[in-house]
Amino acid sequence: MKPHIFTRAAFGAAASLAAVAPLAGCNSDGEPTSSTSHPSRSSDTQDTSATAEYADGTYSARGVYGGAPSHMDFTVTIEDNVITDVESELMEDNNDTSRGYQERFAAALPDEVIGKSIDEVEVGVLAGASSCGDGFNDAVAKIRDQATNVT
Known about the structure:
β1 and β2 (about 70-80) form a beta hairpin. The radius of gyration is 19 Å and the shape is globular. By secondary structure, it is of the alpha+beta class. The protein starts with a helix and ends with a helix. Helix content is about 35%, strand content about 20%.
């Protein structure tokens, strides 16, 4: 083969990636987002006897994520330290692409978190939304604080 064929193929692959990459995030302005990895909680290192006790109730918090920044509001119901319900509210000022990611994430979220311990729940990419999970995890951290500081 001639060397220019490889150059043309490499250029085509790079151009395709450049066209698709901005759509992979879950940012309110359609800009690509950087994905951050979260270390998994290992069952070997988790001491279940030290699990926090959370007050039963319904709690709400805003989860912020991405570079814009973007956000979603989440309402979580906790009973006996277990999530029994979750609702998501999308960011109001949103472009069509980001709104689509948030809508798909919100639709997939209940199946992922209902029935799980509030102490252990953590989500990543759901329904193709690469950053919305960071927003949910941010909101859950705030909700844990709310539920432990109830008097």
